[in-house]
Design brief:
474 residues, alpha/beta, Leucine-rich repeat, LRR (right-handed beta-alpha superhelix), two-stranded antiparallel ribbon, 18 strands
Length: 474
């Protein structure tokens, strides 16, 4: 090392964050590239001077990625673990780890989580009060559980993901109460053991004359929450019902994104009122509505937002005039829409009329078991729509040949002088049909599909039955 003139340490640190320590390498068994820990560039920089070494060493060990660092000896990891700020996605070293400055802690591998790892995780959580992102998934041992005491010190937590836990005896209520002051994103998946009212205030037996004030005082309130993604309201054993969801969202005044399931046969008007009145910022809604009638889904979607939705995704639904009319109420603001129709319950003409009204749409996708034929194509072409669409996805049942699909789009790229259609990033090998009649029918059907999008001037991505293509100006 030399004592030559130095850059300021803060500049060296910025340079360090531009040096990749994890390098993508091809996998011998998969098309997906793997990331490997390759710090040779850092080692070369360490030789510049003592200042460079002292400045870059914390940058090199800023993030721990167990999968990519599995070959590093455990004693090396333990020695430098006090530099870690990020730890994910799997803990493969036994430690001990001396982390006290973590901001991100994620352990999200259901199959590989052990009882010992979760004991380590509990200790790491308690020793890192500055955590901003925390992911905790269930250990393989059924005796392992979560307690609200593990979360009490996390006053800076902004993103919390819990998955695969049995949280009975109102544990979830206590956990959310402990971290709720700054929480922005909450994800709850595969949470079991919840009972009705487990997320509601616990009322005392006496003094019930003023029940309403007790509810308001004890309500679970997350004042900064912007996004909640959960499957605990789907109904059935081990899940909460729609009334619990109504009670819960009332404590989220800044909620912008809601991703949830709706129990079958639910009455949704009260939930719509709760979201509209208590969550005035709600802009993005994704619902899994298996078993929910069209009229009840329409009663929720239509009035759910006073200012209008920005994006909407509905899965396992019946699409008819009533629902499309409800969606059209958001035409002035709706820019992203995706519909997944259950079975054959799809009124395509109503969908087209809705698309005409929703003139602001930039992305639209529809998936159905409807058979794509000439009648479907003619219905989709019957009115002018999609003039602002940038991305379109059409997924209908069809028996077309994969090889013919590829041939068709490649031929289109040669024939069309204005637009160039190119296959997307992933490779798909298709075998051409030997029967000439099948090939002719396939091409005719694809011509119909192409005619639907040909006049959409803003469209740059078109996915047809899982075949993604992009087009750009020549």
């Amino acid at each position: 090392m030399t004592n030559s003139p130095e850059l300021p340490p803060e500049i060296i640190i910025k340079i360090g964050f531009c040096i990749p320590a994890l390098v993508e390498e091809p996998s011998p068994t998969s098309r997906v590239a793997l990331k490997a820990f390759r710090p040779q560039t850092f080692f070369a920089c360490f030789l510049v001077s003592r200042t460079w070494y002292q400045s870059l060493l914390p940058v090199l060990w800023y993030a721990y990625c167990g999968n990519s660092m599995s070959r590093i000896p455990n004693d090396v990891i333990a020695r430098y673990s006090h530099h870690f700020r990020i730890l994910r996605p799997a803990l493969v070293h036994p430690g001990p780890l001396h982390c006290t400055l973590l901001t991100v802690l994620e352990l999200d591998r259901y199959e590989t989580c052990t009882y010992k790892e979760h004991l380590q995780l509990s200790q790491l959580v308690r020793e890192n009060p500055g955590l901003r992102t925390l992911t905790r998934t269930r250990a393989t041992s059924k005796s392992m559980t979560l307690e609200s005491d593990d979360f009490v010190g996390l006053k800076s937590l902004e993103v919390l993901t819990l998955g695969g836990w049995k949280l009975s005896d109102r544990r979830l209520f206590g956990i959310l109460r402990a971290v709720g002051s700054k929480l922005r994103i909450l994800r709850l998946h595969r949470i079991y053991g919840l009972l009705p009212c487990d997320l509601s205030p616990q009322l005392e037996q006496d003094g019930i004359a003023d029940i309403n004030s007790k509810i308001d005082d004890g309500r679970l309130t997350l004042p900064c929450l912007e996004t909640i993604e959960t499957d605990i309201f789907n109904g059935g054993p081990g899940n909460l019902g729609i009334h619990d969801l109504e009670e819960l969202v009332a404590g989220f005044p800044r909620l912008e994104t809601l991703v949830t399931g709706i129990p079958a046969s639910s009455q949704t008007s009260c939930l719509a009122s709760a979201l509209r009145d208590r969550c005035p910022r709600l802009r993005n809604l994704r619902l899994d509505a298996w078993g929910v009638s069209e009229d009840q889904l329409a009663a929720l979607v239509g009035p759910v937002s006073a200012t209008g939705l920005f994006s909407l995704q509905l899965d396992n639904i019946c699409v008819g005039k009533e629902l499309t009319s409800a969606i059209s109420r958001h035409a002035a603001t709706l820019q992203h829409l995706r519909l997944q129709s259950a079975y054959f319950q799809l009124d395509l003409q109503a969908v087209v009329e809705m698309l005409v009204e929703c003139w602001q749409l930039k992305t639209f996708g529809i998936q159905s078991m409807y058979i794509f034929n000439e009648n479907v194509a003619e219905t989709l072409k019957s009115q002018l729509w999609g003039q602002r669409l940038e991305r379109l996805s059409l997924g209908f049942e069809t028996g077309v040949n994969r090889g013919e699909v590829m041939d068709f789009f490649h031929s289109k790229s040669r024939e069309d002088s204005t637009w160039r259609w190119r296959h997307a990033d992933w490779k798909l090998i298709g075998f051409r049909a030997k029967n000439a009649d099948v090939r002719t029918a396939t091409r005719a059907l694809l011509e119909k599909a192409f005619e639907i999008v040909q006049e959409m001037e803003c469209l740059h991505t078109f996915e047809w039955n899982g075949f993604p293509f992009t087009r750009t100006l020549v």
